[in-house]
Amino acid sequence: MMTPGVFQSASPYKPNSACRWTLVGAKRSRLQLKFKALDTENNLDEVQVWVGGKTEATAKMVARLSGTEDANMIPVFYSPNNYMFVKLMSDNAVEKKGFSAEWKAQLSVKNAGRLDLIATRTKQYIKSALYPTMVLPGLREVWVIRAEGLRKVVSVQIEDLDIGGGSYLEIRDGDKAAAPLLAKFEGSDVSTSIVVSTSDAVRLYLYTQQQFNGKGFKCSYVDGE
C-alpha cells in the first residue's frame, strides 16, 4: 500500500487466514500506525505489527494483538524507516470482525540535537524517540537538565532501559560533554538506577547503534535529592 489512509481486514475474516498488508512510505520518511478497532478470537487469532522492512527477515515484530481491545488502549506504532507490514493470522474455528487501522508517513526522526530542561520538585520524564515501541538506530541525542531551585542539584532515576548491545546512555555532572561522568548505562543493565549531581546541571547523552534493537529508555528527574 503506497497511499496512506485507513485499511481493514475482511469482517468477519475467514478461517485459516494468513493475510498481510505491506505499507510503504516515501523515502526518508517513517510510518505511523494507529488501530481504530480490534476484534479477534482471544489468544488464538492475532494481528502482528512488523516494522523496518518488507520481509520478516529484514523487519522486527513489535506487537502481537489478540482479543477485543479498546482502540484507545492500543499504542501507536512507528517504524524507523519507510517500511511496515501488518499480518492477520487465524485458526480454523471462531471468526470475528477483525481490525481496522490508519497509517501515515511522517518526516524521518533525526538526531534531536540538544534539549534544555528545567528540573523542579515535581517529577518530570524523558523518553527516547518512539519509546516503548523501539529504539531508533543511529541516534546522538543530548538532554541538559538544570536545577534552578534552592537545592541546586539534579536527581535522575532510570525507570526503564532497553537499548540493545553497543548502545549506551551516559549522565555527566554538568552541562558540557567533558564534564565528569556520573554513570554510563548499556544495553538493559541498570546497576545504579538513581544518579544525583554535585552541580546544578546534568547532561544525558544517548548513543545508539545502526541496527534497531530494544524499546528505548525512560527516566525521571527532579530538583534536589
UniProtKB/TrEMBL annotation:
Q: Which UniProt keywords apply?
A: Disulfide bond, Repeat
Q: Does the keyword Acetylation apply?
A: no
Q: Where in this chain does the record put each CUB domain?
A: 1-106, 111-224
Extract the Gene3D superfamilies matched here.
Spermadhesin, CUB domain (2.60.120.290)
| Superkingdom of this protein's organism | Eukaryota
Question: Repeat: is it a keyword of this entry?
Answer: yes
Do you know which PROSITE patterns this protein is assigned to? CUB
Pfam families, alphabetized: CUB
The protein in question is named: CUB domain-containing protein
